[in-house]
C-alpha cells in the first residue's frame, strides 16, 4: 500500500525534466518554479522512503565536503544527515587546520578537495557582498577542473547560507508550509508577515529574511515585510520579491509597524537582523580588522535596536492575527524573552505554543539538502527512485 | 564449526527478554542483572562475528552523535569503532563550533541533532551533580520530540562517563573479569579492591571508582573500597554498592589502608580520585568562574594528596595479594611512577607486568558500546544476530 | 571492452608477489622497484574502476585513523578520499582533544586507537630526527599489541610526510611522470631538476626534495639537485639518491646555480626548503620552547634566503630547458610571484602554463594512498581486484 503511494508520487515526477542536473544551488531566484517543486517532492519521497525503512542510499562511496565559515549546529547536522542518508561521507574543510586560511588560492583548493567529492556545502554569511561571490569562485574553479580533466566529475555546490540567501532554510520553511496547509496551492491568498524583531544581539545575517521574501512571494501569498525605519534589506532582493509577487498573483508590502503588519496574518516569521547599511559598514571594518570601529558600530547599533524593544512578537500581537492563531515560524534559535534573553524576538508564551512546530519546520532541512544533492547528481531522478524501491534495501536490518 | 558455536551462543540469548529495547543506558544500577548479562553476551558475539569476518553491520545509514564535554581518546575511539561496526557515522557535536555553547537550549538542540540520529553518546563528567542530570535533560527532550512526531525514532543515549557512573568502562572491566576468570560465577567469593591511589594531579572524576563498586558488588565478590580518610565517594552510590553486596552474597568493606586492603586480594584496581566534598567545592567554583578559588583549592588538594604518597601500588603491596599475583586493573591512562610522573598510582614494575592485560581490558569497550547500541535498537537481538549470520556478509572482501 | 582492459591489467599483476602485505609504508627507499611498481599499477586500476563506476569498496566497516601533527589540506583530503573509496571511515586523532598531548604514552595510545582500525596515516614533519622515529615507535607498539593478542589485526602505517620522506607525494609525482611520458621506461635518460627556489617564508620541510631525489633516481634519469650553497639536504638521503642513480644507469649531480641546472632539462621541480643545519637548530629551539631563539633564527634565515631572490623559476629559465617546455612540477601550494607573494618560487607566467598539470599531479595522491592501504591488507591483490570486477557493484546507483 505504502509502496504504491510512493510509486504514484514518483510517477508524477516523470513529467518533470530535471534541469537541476549538474547545476549548483546558490539562490532560489535562479531556479524555476518547476525546479523548486521537484526538490520539495523528492525531499518528501526521501523522507517517506526512510520512514518505510527503505534505504535511499545511492552512493557506495564519495565525499560530501563542508566548508563552514561561520558557526553552525542545525545546518551542520542537516548536511551531515543528508550526505549520510545518500551514502556520502562528510569531510569538513576546516580552514584553521588547513593551509588556505587566507589568500587567493580558492581556485586551487577547490580542486584539491574535489578529486573524489560529489558535493560541497558552503556557509559563508559574515561579509556582505562576499559569501555568494565566494561560492561562485569555487564553482568556476570546479568548472575549469572538470572541463580540463582534473576532476572526474563536477561536485555540486549547495549554498548552506550566504550573505544573500539561505535556500536550504527557506525551502525547508516552504515544505513546512506546504505540509501544514496541505499544498502549495493552499498558500495562495494567505497573508505572510516577515517581520524584523527586537534582539539584544547584533549583526545577525540578512539571508533569512531575504531568502523568505524572495521565495514565499512566488506562491501567490500576500507578503508583508515589516521593520523599523532604517532596517532595510538588500534592495535588489526586495525587488526580486516584488516582481515575484506581481507575477504569482500575490501582493508585496513594506510596513514599519509590527502590530499593523500582523493584522489578519496567516503566518508570522519574526526574526532580528542587522540593517543593510550597518552590515556594509561592518563588512568594511571586518576587512580592515578595525576592532575599535567594530565595537563602536556594535554600540551604536545596539542603542538603535534598543529603541525598538516593542518589536517583540507577543500574545497581544498574536491575537491580532487571523483568528488569533497565525502560524509562527522561526529558523531557530530564537531570542525568547525571559528564556534565552531578558527581552527578545518573541515572548515565551507565543514561542512555547509553536515550539514543536518550529522543530518540525527544522526537520525538513536534511531532506531538502538531500533532495538538492539528489537532483544535482541524477538526470532522471524518478528512475533512480524506482530502482531504490525495486532494490528495497532495508535501512535498518 | 565456529558458526555453530556462534549460533549456540545466540540460541541461549533467546530466553532473555530484551527489556533494554528503547531504553537509555545511564547508570548500571538502573539495570537488572539479566540486562547486564545480555550486554556482555552480545558484546562477545559481536566480537566473535568480527573475528570471523562476518560483518555485524545493521544500519545502512544513520548518525551516531557524540557530545564530549571533556577530553577523551579511549572512549572517543571506542564509540567511533562501535558506531562504525554497526554501520553508523559519528557526527561530533562540538559545542565550540556550534551555537549552543551555553544556555538552556538543551531541549531544542537535542531535537535539532536527532532527525536522522540513532544514538547519542555523552561524556559530561566535570561538574558534580550535573553530568547525569544533563543526560536526563537530553533524554526528556528526545522523549518529547519523539512522542510529538518531531523525531521519526527515539535515539538511545549512551552514558560515556558522567559525574556518577562510567558504565561503558565498568562493563568493559566486568567483561574482562569474566573472560579472565572464565565466567561471572567464577567471580563469586573473589576479593576485589577498589583503592584510591596517589597522583600528582588533581580533580580526577569519581565516576570510575563509583561505577566499579556499584557494578562489581553484584557478583558475590568481597569488595574492599580503600582510601585515605577524607577521600569519600558520593554516599548514595556507596549505599548502592553495599546493598548490591548484601543481595549478591558478597561483602562490602571500607578500609583506610591500601596495604591492609590488598591482603589476599584477587583483583586490585588502584586509581586516584578527588574527594567528594572537594569536587563539590570545585563544581561551585567552576560555576562561578572563580579562578583564584580554583587555584587555591588545587593547592590545598595537592598538599593533601601529598600526605598520601605511600598510596602507590607497588611490588611490596602486590606481594601481599593472593599468591602475590592479584589481577591489576586500570581504566588508563595510569599515573606510573617514573614513567608518566615522578611518583604516581602504580610502580613501573607492577604496571609493566600487567600492561598488556590492561590493554585487553580496554579492548572490550568498543564491543560493550556496540552491544548497548544494539540492544537499544532491536527488540529481538537474537533474531537480528541470526539474520547477520545468515547473510554472512564479509567485513573484509 | 573497458572491463577486458582492466582484467588484462590485473592479469599482469599476478606475476608479482606482494611483499608489501602487512608491511608499513615509511620510506620509499625501503621498498623494492617491484613493490613500487605494484603500487603504481594498483593505483591506476583503482582509478579506472572508479571511473567505470565499479566500486572498489573492500571494507564493510573499519577505521582509518589519521594523526596530523602539522597542518594539511591536500594530504588530509587525499587520505580521507582513499579510505572512503575502500570503505573505511576516517577517525582523526586530534592530540588537542585527547589526553596524550605530550608524554611517552605513544605505546599505549597506539593500541587504544587500533582495536578496530585497519590503517593509520601519520604526518609528523616538524622536528628533524623525530617524525620518522615517531612512526616507528607507533609501529613497534602495534607489533607488540598484535603479537600479544591485544589487536585482532595489525593496522598498516602510511607515512603522510615526515622529516625524511613524503612517499605519498613522491609516488603521486612518479605516477604523474609515468602517465605524462607514457611509461617508467620512458623516463630513462630524461633530465630532472629538483631545485631549491626562493620563498619569503621559512622552515619548509625537507621531505619533498629528499623524497623526490631518492625516488626519481631509481628510473635511470639524470637527476640534478640544485641549491645555493648552504641549503644542503640530509646527507644520508643524498647518498641514497646517488647510489640509486648509479644502480639505475642514471646520473646524479649537485649544482649551485638554478640557471645552469635547468639547461636542457625535461622536468623541473622548483621548491623552497630550509637548510638542513637550520632545521637542526630549529628542532633544538622548538624542543626547548625558545621563542626568542626561534625568532632570531627566522630572521637570520630569511635574510639568508633574501640573498637568493634570483632563484625564482621564470620564463627566462624555462626557455633554457629542453625545447623550452620542460614539465614543471610542484607539490602545491607554490609560492607564486605576484600571486601568493611578492616574489616566490615561480613566476606567475610559468605557473599558469602548468597549473592544470600540477592539479593532475595532485590528483594521483588519493589513489596512491588507496593502493598503499590495499597492498598492505591483501596478500593477493590481483584476486581481490578480480572479485571486485566480478561483483561489479556500482559506486553510484
Walkthrough of the structure:
The structure is a homotrimer of 397-residue chains. With 397 residues, chain A is an alpha/beta fold. Chain A has 2 domains: 2-165 and 365-391, Rossmann fold (3-Layer(aba) Sandwich), CATH 3.40.50.1370; 169-362, Rossmann fold (3-Layer(aba) Sandwich), CATH 3.40.50. Helix content of chain A is 46%, strand content 12%. Chain A is built from 15 helices and 9 strands. In chain A, the strands form 2 sheets. In chain A, strands 7-6-5-8-9 form a 5-stranded parallel β-sheet. A 4-stranded parallel β-sheet of chain A has the order 2-1-3-4, with helices on both faces. In chain A, helix 8 links the parallel strand 6 and strand 7 (251-255). The first copy, chain A, is globular. Chain A starts with a helix and ends in a 6-residue tail after the last helix. Mean pLDDT of chain A is 94; it is low at 98-103. Chains A and B meet through helix 3 and helix 13 of A and helix 4 and helix 15 of B.
Give the SSE map.
The structure is a homotrimer of 397-residue chains.
Chain A: H1 2-13, H2 33-51, E1 63-68, H3 74-86, E2 89-92, H4 106-112, E3 117-124, H5 131-147, E4 156-162, H6 167-181, E5 191-195, H7 207-216, E6 222-226, H8 235-248, E7 251-255, H9 258-261, E8 267-270, H10 276-288, H11 291-306, H12 315-318, E9 327-328, H13 348-363, H14 365-377, H15 381-391
Parallel strand pairs in A: 1-2, 1-3, 3-4, 5-6, 5-8, 6-7, 8-9
